[in-house]
Amino acid sequence: MTVLHLRAAGASLVLDARGGVPTIIHWGSDLGGLDETALVALADASVPAVPPSSIDVPLQWSLWPALADGWSGRQAVEGHRQGAPAPAFRLVELHDQDPIARVRGESADGSLGLTTELELSAEGVLRVRHRLVNRGDTGFELAGLDVQLPIGADAAELLDFTGLWAHERQPQRAPLRHGVWSRESRHGRPGHDDAFLLMAGVPGFGFRRGRVWAVHLAWSGDKRLFAERSALGHSALGGGELLAPGEIRLAPGESYETPWLVAAFSETGIDGLSDRLHPWIRSRSALRLPRPVVLNTWEAVYFDHDLPILENLVDAAAAAGVERFVLDDGWFTGRRDDKRALGDWYVDPAVWPDGLHPLISRVISAGMDFGLWVEPEMISPDSALAREHPSWILGGGSGPTWRWQRVLDLGNPAAYAYLRDRLSALLTEYPIAFLKWDHNRDLLVPGTSHRQTRALYRLLGELRSAFPHVEIESCASGGARIDLGILDLVDRFWTSDTNDPLDRQRIQRWTSVLIPPEYLGGHLGDATAHVTGRHAALGFRLATALFGSAGIEWNLTTASGADRAVIAGWIALHKRLRPLLHTGTVVRADAPDPAFRVHGVVSPDRSSAVYALVAVGSPSAALPPPIRFPGLDPDRAYTVRPIGTPPKAVQDTPPAWLAAGSVTLPGRVLAEAGLPVPLLAPEQALLLEVS
Ligand code: DGJ
User: Fold this and answer.
1) Which of 103, 223, 559, 589 could form a disulfide with 563 if both were Cys (CB 3.0 to 4.6 A apart)?
2) Are 575 and 290 in contact (CB under 8 A)?
3) From CA 475, how far away is CA 492, in angstroms rounded?
4) Alpha-carbon distance 563 to 541, whole Å?
5) Is any ligand 1 atom within 6 A of the Cβ of residue 299?
6) Which whole-number Å values give the CA distances from 399 to 532, 548, 685, in the listed order?
């Protein structure tokens, strides 16, 4: 056993695993190449003083914080065996086998085993998870198993997220003081208010500045992320599944494994986190590029499924350059509104006498592929399925309905098999390329989140191996289930139910701190947003939907010929730019005037980039601050020119470089001095291509 140094891409983790209690000596900036002697010297030198009125041995940050070792903060293991609380653990074995280090421990009596896996990816993303095994001969009631990582004492400010339907990913900051800041989800899905990514950094850390540590839990059910600063002198970020009393009882021989806690450290602000997380996520996923441009029928027709109307929409979509046509809610038996029929996954013969074949043929002959909306984990009380199998309803149908629906108990083998077979039958009968997989309510049945989430993962896994060509989108009333657990099994997220570009600017900006833009559905909606009733100019809506997995959520047949031509031009622009947008480095500027936001994507070789200057409000000065371009090579010359629909600007003359059509300057100048901006009206966006 040894002192372990995981080191990659400017980040280091040092674990003293020489015996006793394994301690994390450092997680943060790169400590450089240290040989064994230096590592041992570091570990020895890291033993702190013993303060008065404390335990009589030095207290170091344990990989497995435990009360019995003197740690009175959050514990690694919570639970009991017949009333006897969880013990402390001692190191038994270290297996450092690239890329995963396994640290195995045991309780003193050997009745519990605890193994921790740590992996630092080439991109500098740290993943850690625990596995607890019951080796005793009685049951162990597990109340919690959390991974915790120490952070720097200078990390005194927290940033995480809250939100609500159609307003996901609202950032919130708070000072990190003594105590615990715990963000807990009991939705049975992460929820619209998901903490998502809990960051702790030096006060005032921004997109491009400040040291920051961050954690995310790769799990789609109940969970908690927390930060703790203790009067004992330590600060940590942590997380784990939020277990209800009695939810996990380990019988003799059984084990429980936590979801991965995904963690990253950055010297250079929030963008530095994305710089690690995006390439890592991309390297792990088999996402097929290019991402097809989508038309989704929800806000176009809602439940009014009518073949001739949809055929016209197919033709309009194909003429604009759309590549995937998705039929949303309303196609299955009896589903004329959102009050009934979930579970009856048969094409409604009253609406579709020839099945979906005529529509799908039209879609395919127009050169697009076809996608279908489903909400498999749900059941309407008013459905044939619920009438036939009332026992398949999770929790037996007590408690309030939500959107007039209940949850199908995936832990019931018959219900699970019905669902798998029904979905398989649909995927076999029809040439479906894409499932929009929705989930429109919280579970609200205590103690079921764990097994329901595991069953969901199993179902998605089974369907993916049986139908590997089918892509799946995770949707949960918009963006209530966006996490790295489900991302192993899906290809796209529906980022939010709002297509209002003003709200979308915030939601996409923050969701893409963790998730690369090509996974995030962003659609062009109606001029008057259906969710907010706010009017937005076409150019602003298009600029907002350009960067992610782009699409349309609008009845194009009602758009004017002129608008349709602009939309076709936008789709052509997106197709030209998507190789860059969907592989490049996402950058955001720290804006001196909150009315303006700058974001962009820089190609991996930094030869080209696309930026958006977005006016979300009115400027606080007649001449707003110049736009500065983060992420370029300082020593190369770049030409900057506007693209896309020209925004409305309230000005007598534009800035000279824009009047000239373009400017060529070194990357250093563009990043440091920047360029004067046009005087954009509120809710306008200027797109700039840099090459
Ligand atoms: C909620 C989704 O987020 C919407 O996009 C839409 O699919 C509706 N459900 C359909 O019921």
Assistant:
1) 559
2) yes
3) 9
4) 12
5) no
6) 30, 38, 46
Give tens-digit pLDDT for 62-105: 999 999 999 999 999 999 999 999 999 999 999 988 889 999 99
The string of pLDDT tens digits covering residues 166-198 is 999 999 999 999 999 999 999 999 999 999 999
How many A from CA of 232 to the centre of ligand 1? Answer: 48
Q: Is the CB of 480 under 6 A from ligand 1?
A: no
Whether the CB of 373 sits within 6 Å of ligand 1: yes
Q: List active site positions.
A: 438, 497
Between the CA of 310 and the centroid of ligand 1 the distance, in Å, is 18
Task: Please give the distance, rounded to the nearest whole angstrom, from the Cα atom of residue 83 to the centre of ligand 1.
Answer: 46
The strand ranges marked E within 290-433 are: 294-296, 324-327, 369-374, 378-379, 406-407
Tell me the C-alpha distance between 400 and 337, whole Å.
19
Q: Measuring from atom 1 of ligand 1, which residue has the nearest CA?
A: 477
DSSP string, 328-346: -S--BTT-SSTTS-TT--S
Atom in ligand 1 nearest the alpha carbon of residue 328: 7
Closest CA to 7 of 95, 94, 124: 124
Nearest to 73 by CA among 61, 91, 90: 61
Token pair in block for residue 451: 């097994």
Please report which helix (H) or strand (E) contains residue 40, including its range.
Answer: helix 36-45
How far apart are alpha carbons 113 and 120 in whole angstroms? 23
Q: Is 474 in the pocket of ligand 1 (CB under 6 A)?
A: no
Give ∠ CA 93-96-100 in degrees, rounded to 5.
Answer: 115
Is 327 close to ligand 1, i.e. is its CB under 6 Å away? no
Residue whose CA is closest, atom 9 of ligand 1? 477
Write the DSSP symbol of residue 423: H
Spacing, Cα 375 to ligand 1 middle (Å): 9
Omega of the bond leading into 259 within 30 degrees of 0 (cis) = no
- Residues 640-651, mean pLDDT to the nearest whole number: 98
Confidence band (pLDDT; 50, 70, 90) for 285?
confident
The protein residue whose alpha carbon is closest to atom 5 in ligand 1 is 497
pLDDT at res. 98: 81
Q: Where are the alpha helices (DSSP H) in 582-628?
A: none
pLDDT at residue 496, as a whole number: 98
Question: What are 182's strand-pairing partners?
Answer: 226
Atom from ligand 1 closest to the CA of residue 497: 3
Question: Mean pLDDT score of the chain, rounded to an integer?
Answer: 97
